[in-house]
Amino acid sequence: MGASCHRGEQNSMNKRLEDIRRFWQTESISYGESPTGAHSDPNIVALENEFVVRNLEKHPPSRLLDIGCGNGQRTRLFSECSREHTVGIDSSTNAIEFAKKIESDRLRFLVDDVLSPGWQDRYDFDSVVSCRCLINLGTLDNQLRVIDTVARRLPTGGLFVFCETCKNGTETLNILRAKLGLHAITPTAANLDLDDEPIMDFVRKRFRIVDHRRFGTYYFLTRCYYPAAIAPAAPDPKSQFNSAAAAIERAAMNPALEPYGRQLCVAARRL
User: Fold this and answer.
1) Which helix or strand (DSSP H or E) is residue 165 part of?
2) Which is it for the CA torsion 269, 249, 53, 73, positive or negative?
3) Strand partners, 268
4) Model pLDDT for residues 118-146, shown as the tens digit of each residue
5) Distance (Å, rounded) from C-alpha 57 to C-alpha 102?
6) How many CB atoms lie within 10 A of CB 236?
7) Which residues are CB-contacts of 5 (< 8 A; sequence separation ≥ 6)?
């Protein structure tokens, strides 16, 4: 009975992961060479990019690995901080086809899967970036396994920067949105928002946190204030309001609003 249940769970997980891969194969074609990838809000991507670059500039890598690199546009930006070379990997062959168009002597792209055995030994790196790779791994166990693999492979002091969506921020936003008569935000079916507490507890045992942002001011303004103010009209993620909200996030981030942020952006150095 136990073995049968285990096989059933494994088959279900394999199907889940295959569905995720199939989804991103299709999405990769639709967003092509877009600098924001599949994200509909360019300001979120810009804020994430600034977070990653700021921390890479503070702790310059020699050999950078970008896991879940998509079409490589953001990897190219991050690679400017690397002193030697940068590699981007993604399980989507379609995404890597686009990425290979921007390869150079110091920037390479390869099809690979961070859930495959020994993937970490195929690359030489001292810093790792993940922008929405972890949320596409299907389960919390898989997310923790990849974080642990990164930690074990990085040298002492090596930098790990990840920008992912998170469960707590989504729930906090949705509580307020409900009070404002707005529908709940639901993650894309392929995504599993990071569960903040177990993820951060796990990270702190292996890394020293050097930077941590949620972009709560931006999310509060664009996901609560703006849609409530213009309802029933639909908000435009490329609106002037969103651009102004991003400028406010940069200039006057309010710590009290951080819990409303759906992003979990963390920069950490290996203990």
Assistant:
1) strand 159-165
2) positive
3) 160, 209
4) 999 999 999 999 999 999 999 999 999 99
5) 22
6) 13
7) none
Displacement of CA 151 from its chain's centroid (Å) = 17
CA nearest neighbour of 71 among 105, 111, 21, 42: 111
Contact in structure between 35 and 73 (CB atoms under 8 Å):
yes
pLDDT in tens, 42-81: 999 999 999 999 999 999 999 999 999 999 999 999 999 9
C-alpha R_g of the chain: 19
pLDDT: is 253 or 52 the higher one? 52
Phi-psi group of 254: left, alpha or beta (phi > 0 → left; psi -120 to 50 → alpha; rest → beta): beta
Single pTM value for the model:
0.94
CB half-sphere exposure, 52, CA atoms < 13 A: 30
Torsion of CA 185, 165, 46, 28, to 10 degrees: -90
Which residues are registered as beta bridge partners of 164? Answer: 264
Token pair for 255: 């710590």
Which domains can be identified in the chain, with CATH numbers? 2-270 (3.40.50.150)
Residue 11 confidence class, pLDDT cut points 50, 70, 90: confident
**Which pair of structure tokens corresponds to residue 43?**
């300001």
Strand duo 127-131 + 159-165: pairing? parallel
Helices (H) and strands (E) in the chain, counts: 10, 7
Cα 22–Cα 186–Cα 215 angle in degrees, nearest 5: 105
- Which among 80, 88, 76, 83 has a CA at the least distance from the CA of 62? 83
Nearest CA to 76 out of 60, 92, 87 is that of: 87
